[in-house]
Design goal:
By secondary structure, the chain is of the alpha/beta class. The protein contains 15 helices and eleven strands.
């Protein structure tokens, strides 16, 4: 009987690193907004189909949550918050990573009498008190990885196979290491919620190889006909290109010889848009985790060319507008730095109204130069024109606005149909605004609006406490305690 060193079995990784990303870095570069490590439970993920169905179900659950229209406003708000935060990021030369782990002993594929019983991995430590930079996005990530859909209502058809102790949040600077065998990477890109959540898979085969006897003339070992290996097989990694793949591309490249079936979950994920490979620039930089050059067991023929490489999906470039319009907007931005109590001249109001034909350009410029929109009453008029017709008044980036200016804007005719308002509340000087009546104006404006259903109040990502949030909400409660609370019951905060 021939004998040789051959592959006995090939698995996908046991565990996965999940990262929610967006193009919020400098010059639109991708950055992480929430990262979690989900370890595979050996008792439930000892087989190839089980491991695949687990990460596919996790990915679908996350896409479903992130695509929910009710979650869109807070996702957009935290994404805007991230843009300002990452603008001042300091490059770190020593970034954290999840360590690799020894692989479980070789298991003959299910159904054979001499397979060994697997044991669950130890619980991961959990720091539930740690503040997270973007708490809403982090909550979405945890819900997707831990929720139980056995009630049959969810489309993901996923049971609760992950224990609470199998999921661990990671720092946003965490990198994916290409030289790790234990886990793969799933990327979920929320850069463009209008076109949909994009996903991508970077997960490499784990191959068990050993010196065995085999009857097959091509050197293929058969777990039924051939004797088992005399020694514990080696765990050998395969090729590791730096790219994001769809589920179809991933299966075609690494497991073209394995029958997996096209179940409903696989088909659903295959219909989702693919994330651009640029998302890996931050998560898997070239300097981290390049596998040794001799780590190659798969041949080029293993790749089905129909599953082409991941291509970067580019969003539409920002609309360009004339220098004359840009200069006029910048002049008005300079005027917003004047004291809030100064009265407006009719000529200024007329200039702002003339920008209605260029409202998208105005909104784009305001968001590009968000630190230039000052406390003057002019700001309220600019916001009315720029955000007319928008359902979400995402004003997180405007750090110099007063509560009075915000109140005046949201009660205007142009913005009366808006359904969501997002503000960064740690920027407000409550003592000053209370003295000037700004907080009372905001409460009155919120009570007057019948369309605003979502109120998102955020703090800066590197906050040391939630004191600012507590103060702001307590002041709102004090103002509302003597009035009609009916308007609040139909809203979410």
């Amino acid at each position: 009987m021939p004998r040789g060193y051959t592959q006995l079995y090939k698995l996908c990784p046991r565990s996965f690193l999940f990262a929610i990303v967006a193009n919020v870095g400098p010059d639109g570069a991708s950055r992480s907004l929430a990262v979690a490590y989900r370890q595979g439970n050996d008792a439930n993920s000892a087989s190839f189909p089980s491991r695949v169905s687990h990460f596919v179900a996790d990915t679908l659950a996350l896409i479903e949550i992130l695509s929910d229209p009710a979650n869109r406003a807070p996702l957009e708000a935290e994404r805007s918050l991230a843009e300002g935060w990452y603008r001042d990021e300091v490059e770190c030369s020593d970034r954290p990573s999840v360590p690799d782990r020894p692989q479980p002993p070789f298991l003959v594929p299910e159904g054979y009498s001499w397979a060994r019983q697997m044991h669950p991995q130890p619980q991961l430590p959990w720091d539930g008190d740690a503040s997270r930079e973007f708490p809403f996005i982090t909550t979405c990530l945890l819900l997707g990885l831990l929720r139980d859909n056995r009630d049959g209502n969810a489309k993901t058809m996923r049971d609760n196979r992950s224990r609470l102790s199998d999921v661990q949040l990671q720092p946003l600077s965490t990198v994916f290491r290409g030289d790790c065998i234990e886990y793969g990477l799933i990327v979920l890109d929320i850069s463009d919620l209008h076109s949909g959540i994009k996903y991508g898979i970077t997960a490499f085969p784990v191959c068990y190889m050993a010196e065995v006897h085999y009857r097959d003339c091509l050197g293929h070992w058969d777990p039924v006909e051939d004797p088992p290996p005399a020694k514990e097989p080696d765990v050998v990694p395969g090729q590791r290109p730096r790219e994001l793949l769809s589920i179809h591309q991933w299966r075609s490249r690494y497991f073209f010889d394995r029958f997996m079936g096209d179940g409903p979950s696989i088909r659903r994920l295959d219909g989702m848009p693919l994330a651009g490979s640029a998302a890996l620039d931050f998560l898997w930089p070239n300097i981290y985790g390049d596998p040794p050059k001799d780590w190659s067991t798969d041949s080029e023929e293993d790749y089905d060319s129909t599953g082409s490489l991941s291509a970067t999906i580019l969003e539409e470039p920002p609309q360009k507008f004339s220098d004359e319009i840009a200069s006029g907007i910048d002049d008005l931005l300079d005027l917003t730095q004047e004291p809030a109590e100064r009265s407006l001249e009719e000529t200024v109001i007329h200039r702002i109204q003339n920008l209605a034909e260029h409202r998208e350009q105005l909104r784009q410029r305001l968001e590009e130069a968000s630190d230039r929109l000052g406390p003057s009453k002019i700001s309220s008029h600019l916001l009315r024109v720029a955000y007319a017709g928008h359902s979400h008044l995402n004003w997180v980036a405007f750090q110099k606005l007063t509560l009075g200016a915000i109140a005046a804007a949201i009660t205007s005719e142009e913005l009366r149909d808006a359904s969501a308002l997002s503000l960064r509340i740690d920027q407000f000087m409550l003592a000053r605004d209370e003295k000037e009546g700004g907080l009372d104006d905001l409460v009155a404006a919120l009570a007057q609006s019948t369309a605003l259903k979502q109120l998102c109040f955020l703090q800066r990502p590197d906050r040391k406490s939630v004191d600012a949030s507590d103060r702001f909400c307590s002041r709102l409660a004090e103002r509302l305690s003597g009035g009609d609370l009916e308007w609040l019951r139909s809203r979410t905060m």
